[in-house]
Amino acid sequence: MPEGHVLHRAARLQGKRFNGHELAVSSPQGRFADEARQLDGQVLEMISAKGKHIFYRFESDDTIHVHLGLFGKYRLSKPPFPTPSPNCRLLMQTDENELHLAGPNQCRILNGEEVDEVLNRLGPDPIVNAKGDREEFIRRVERRKIPIGRAIMDQNLMAGVGNVYRSELLFQIGVHPWRKANEIFPETLGQLWDHAVRELKAGERVGKIITVDPVDVDAEKRSQLTRHERLYAYKRHGKPCRRCETPIKHEDIDGRNAWWCPTCQPA
DNA sequence: GTGTCATGCGTAT
DNA sequence: TACGCCTGACACG
Predict the structure, then answer these.
(1) Helix or strand (DSSP H, E) at A15
(2) Cβ < 7 Å from strand C, A residues 21-40
(3) Which residues contact A32 (CB under 8 A, 6 or more apart)?
C-alpha cells in the first residue's frame, strides 16, 4: 500500500529500531547480494523518506534507495525471526530486530550525489511541508494545461500522492479530476495542498487512509471502519455519495482509475 | 491451478 | 499509448 504516508511511517518506525545500530545485511533472493555484502557489518546512521522514496544512509555514506512500486512490502519482526521469503530482496538484522523487504520496484546503492539527484527530481512533499512548499506547489501546477487528476499524481509536482489520495483529495476540494489545472483558482490549489498535508500526515500517524470527516461518519465508529467506509470516492463507483447520495462515477485517467461524485465535483 | 487485479514508474514507440 | 518489471490476494472453476 505504498503512497507517501507509508514510506514516511516506515522511515519513522524502522528508524527507531535500526538508526545507530550495526546491521547484518543480506539478500536471500540474491538480487541485492553484492550490495548487501558491501554494507554488512556497517552502522546504519539514518533512515529518511521523501514522497514514495526511502533512504538508508550507512556510515560509509553509501545509501540504499528503495522504491516499493506497486508490490513492494516490508515486514518488521522481533526474535525468533520467521524464515525469510524466497523473494526477500533485502534483509537487515540486529539481535533485536529484523527488516524484511520483498518485491520492491527499486533497491540499489547510491552515493550522496546520486541521492540528491533523486530528491531534486521530486516536487514538494506535503508530509514534510517545509516553508514555501505550498507556494512552490501552486507555482508548479497553476500553468499546466493537464487535468488536475493527472497533475496531482505527477511526483515532480507534488511528491507522495497516489491513486487513493488522488480521488479522496479531489473529492474534498470539490474539483472534477478532468478539470484543467490552469483553470483552477490558485486559492483552490492552495486548499488542495492543505488537504494533502492534513490527510497524508494523518495517514502517516494512523497507518491507514481514513479521509471521511467525523461529520459524515459516527465518531465512535471511526476506529472500526471497514476499508470502504473510510473513504469518500476511491473504488465506490455506483455507491451513493456520502454527502449528496449521487452515485459515484469512475473513469480511466492514464491507465489508472479515478473516482468522483458528479454532483459534488461538477465538470 | 489459473487468471486477474492492485495504493507505481520507467522506457520504447 | 503500450508494455515490462516487481509480488500477493482473491475470485473462479
Answers:
(1) helix A4-18
(2) 29
(3) A89, A90, A107
Instruction: State pLDDT tens for residues A113-164.
Output: 999 999 999 999 999 999 999 999 999 999 899 999 999 999 999 999 999 9
Compute and round to an integer the Cα radius of gyration of chain A. 20
All 3 cell numbers of residue A65?
534507495
DSSP reduced 3-state for A156: coil
Mark the nucleotides of strand C covered by protein, meaning any atom under 7 Å from a CB: 1-3, 5-8
Q: How far apart are CA A92 and CA A81, in angstroms?
A: 11
Fold (CATH) for A4-121: N-terminal domain of MutM-like DNA repair proteins (3.20.190)
Which positions of A are annotated as active-site residues? 2-3, 52, 256
Q: Distance from residue A222 (CA) to nucleotide C12 (C1'), in Å?
A: 34
Helices (H) and strands (E) in chain A, counts: 7, 10
State whether CATH 1.10.150.130 applies to domain A133-260: no
